[in-house]
Specification:
552 residues, 9-stranded mixed beta sheet, 7-stranded parallel beta sheet, 18 helices, binds nicotinamide-adenine-dinucleotide
């Protein structure tokens, strides 16, 4: 096996020079390098979500790089759970890379069996955007948390979070988006994080007003209720949430973004130091998982009490309720899931976490695209997000922008950008991609597809169909992922990346791929009976072709 690299040793190439035979391959290679440049533990190939990896091991990584460098425009590289297995002849309108990651047939899809297969080096957890190289750092979830808080404030607080206290936890790869999202939404709050280095990182980024390990001090700092003031509290979430219940302090909004889905690597048990946790997850994974689930049960009981006390409480997509329910909290699902409760109306219109990455490495390309997206006047929400993001959000790694566009909006924008690349108005090509947590991309009955109106929330035909239609459309990278560790057996998702290199071929792939992807999402919700989706499908002409009158 190749030697592991040191942290920081992998960085994404910038500039116009190609190592590959075209921008499609070069773009994907830069995306792979980028997720390691900005990942949480690049030395272990871990990008985010406790152990979401970019490649199976360093040998696989080197072989993927070498394959992309040699790959012709009419060839497709096949990757199985982060390990490249073969190159096949295809066509210049077929994917450059197809991959499947973490998929285990139903009966066997348990966290324990997944771990066993992982230990035997046969499979890996690719998260949603780690294994297929689409992670853009905390910005990837930033707008999601922001949109969510906006929806919460519209529903519960007359449209403003000003003067409201948000309590949450976790400042990891995704969780570190929370302080800025709370501030952008005008709230204030406390983020509990067990690792002081993660608090310091968010403080250095300017996202936390201060860091303390004292709950009283954190509460006192919030008393002035200055909008946008977010405090980092170095402590265990289960302990802090319980302590607030004991003191009768009820925040306005309560959630959590520890990596609770992974009971071994993602959640530090109560009464366990950080050093002890790190040691135990190697020496006694089963023991640490049991303690972690017990601690999650303590935290969820506290969240239920805070809900009873008047707080708006929801799970933010980390499987916390499932873990707590498994540890005996029978009413864990009294807590709402964020997607069903607040985001579904957007998904019904194909609006979800779309994003683009400037492969040149030039920030000026993102500024140009910020201008373009506003000029194209999609919706007022898009304009206000871009205005906030362009001022307050600093990209990690290759410059990127997350922007929740909907069906039809995505392809129109991407085609306009492809035109700019063709006219050499940008420093280089642009990659278009999205989170798997999108209308067509995900089946997760406790996240995206919780309580679907027709009871179809566990049917994973939809993300599989999404990947198939994306392949048929010639998207540059198509991935089918399923859950590892605590998500095992709970989720299936599809990912896509398409490179706008300014060519006619790219225009075709962008138009077909982006419309098929978001279009299938709208149809998925229309099929489940949601009125917004039925009307969106109708106005976009989605569905079966009308019967031709002249047909016999
Ligand atoms: P991560 O592993 O990078 O970070 C988790 C953080 O939680 C770490 O910093 C860890 O120290 C901290 N932590 C663990 N136990 C704790 C405890 N008991 N008290 C306080 N802090 C504790 O994970 P991540 O990438 O930030 O992802 C977090 C979760 O969000 C995952 O479950 C992931 O799958 C989920 N997720 C949700 C969305 C969404 O759209 N809502 C998107 C992506 C990921």
């Amino acid at each position: 096996m190749a030697e592991p690299v040191k942290p920081g040793a992998v960085t994404a190439k910038r500039g116009g020079e190609l190592r590959c035979r075209g921008w499609r391959q070069e773009g994907l290679l830069r995306m792979l390098e980028n997720v390691l440049e900005i990942g949480e533990r690049p030395e272990d190939l871990v990008v985010y979500a406790a152990r979401g990896k970019a490649a199976r091991d360093w040998t696989s990584y080197s072989r993927i790089v070498a394959s992309l460098e040699r790959l012709g425009d009419d060839e497709t590289l096949v990757i199985q759970s982060g390990k490249p297995v073969g190159v096949f002849s295809s066509s210049s309108d077929a994917p450059v890379v197809v991959m499947a990651c973490g998929n285990i047939v139903g009966h066997y899809a348990t966290a324990e069996y997944f771990d066993e297969l992982c230990d035997r080096g046969l499979i890996m957890w690719g998260g949603l955007t780690a294994g297929d190289w689409q992670y853009i750092g905390f910005q990837g979830v930033l707008q999601g948390v922001y949109e969510l808080l906006q929806a919460v404030s519209r529903e519960h607080f007359d449209g403003s979070l000003e003067g409201r206290f948000v309590l949450t936890s976790g400042l990891g790869g995704m969780g570190s988006a929370q302080p800025l999202a709370i501030a952008l939404a005008g709230g204030s709050g406390i983020v509990v994080e067990v690792d002081p280095d993660k608090c310091d990182r968010s403080f250095e980024r300017g996202h936390l007003a201060s860091v303390t390990d004292d709950l009283d001090e954190a509460l006192a700092s919030l008393e002035d209720a200055e909008p946008g003031k977010v405090i980092g509290l170095v402590a265990n979430a289960a302990a802090v949430y319980g302590a607030l219940v004991d003191r009768g302090v009820v925040p306005d909004v309560v959630t959590d973004l520890t990596a609770a889905h992974d009971a071994v690597f993602g959640y530090c048990p109560l009464d366990c130091s950080l050093a002890e946790w790190r040691e135990l997850r190697q020496s006694d994974p089963a023991g640490v998982a049991e303690r972690a689930r017990w601690s999650m049960a303590v935290q969820v009981r506290a969240m239920l009490s805070l809900k009873a006390g008047g707080a708006v409480v929801f799970e933010d997509g980390n499987n916390l309720r499932v873990q707590a329910q498994g540890a005996g909290v029978r009413d864990a699902f009294e807590i709402d899931g964020f997607a069903e409760r607040y985001l579904r109306p957007l998904f019904c219109r194909g609006i979800g976490p779309f994003r683009w990455i400037a492969l040149s490495g030039e920030q000026s390309d993102i500024a140009e695209l910020d201008r373009l997206v506003v000029e194209m006047s999609f919706r007022p929400e898009v304009d206000s997000w871009i205005s906030l993001a362009s001022e307050r959000v600093k990209s990690q790694g290759l410059p990127a922008r997350s922007c929740w566009l909907g069906h039809g909006e995505r392809s129109r924008f991407a085609l306009a950008v492809n035109g700019l690349v063709s006219d050499r108005k940008l420093a280089g090509p642009v990659a278009f991609t999205r989170d798997h947590f999108d209308s067509g991309g995900m089946t997760h009955p406790h996240i995206g597809t919780e309580n679907m109106a027709d009871g179809s929330g566990a049917i994973s035909d939809w993300p599989i169909l999404d990947a198939l239609v994306l392949s048929a459309s010639g998207a540059d990278l198509v991935a089918v992922h399923a859950g590892g560790a605590g998500y095992a057996g709970y989720m299936q998702s599809a990912g896509v990346t398409i490179i706008a290199d300014g060519s006619q071929g790219a225009a075709g792939r962008l138009g077909r791929g982006l419309d098929a992807d978001s279009g299938l999402g709208v149809l998925r919700y229309a099929d489940a009976g949601y009125a917004e989706a039925i009307s969106a499908a109708k106005s976009a002409g989605l569905g079966l072709r009308p019967e031709r009158e002249d047909r016999p």
